Amino acid sequence: MSTVEIIDYITGNPVLFAFMILLVHSLQRKFYKNIFTAWIFDIFGVFFHEVAHFVVGAILNAKPFAFSVIPQKTQYGYMLGHVQFSNVKWYNAIPTAFAPFLLLILAFYIDKYFFVFFEKNVLSYFLYLFIIVVTITSAIPSSQDFKVARSSFTGIVFYVVLCYIGGYFLIERLL
């Protein structure tokens, strides 16, 4: 098998592809000897994670006023980035907190179009895996994101009802 055929086989097999993503992610974590190397490996992911919060917060009137991707030491370890808001309310807390999930859409398009722009070879494949791993892991909300999301009982009830109604109409339309 040629390199291109191997790459096509791995990316076409969900189990092997997931294994490769986990392998690259674990190798990436092995290089986290200190905050500097962690920051170097995660800077792009942290940047897009925080941009997602910032954009969704700005759209939903959460009024972002501070944005940083510079690591800061906290009592629990390090915070690689943050966005601060001055107007987190029941209607914008959950979408703003879970905004990084939108990065999964970016991961989908990277997966779909990466090899349109890059030749299939071992180097580009590992670059592709690295970008996919960084994008997917950056889409995972942090513990602070979950705290913000559950900060408003009214917001939780509102979005649960909204998802229920939306799901009902979606199912009705599909059937």
Automatic annotation (TrEMBL):
TM helices/strands, residue ranges: 6-24, 36-60, 90-110, 122-140, 152-171
Q: Which UniProt keywords apply?
A: Membrane, Transmembrane, Transmembrane helix
Highest rank taxon of the organism:
Bacteria
Name of this protein: Uncharacterized protein
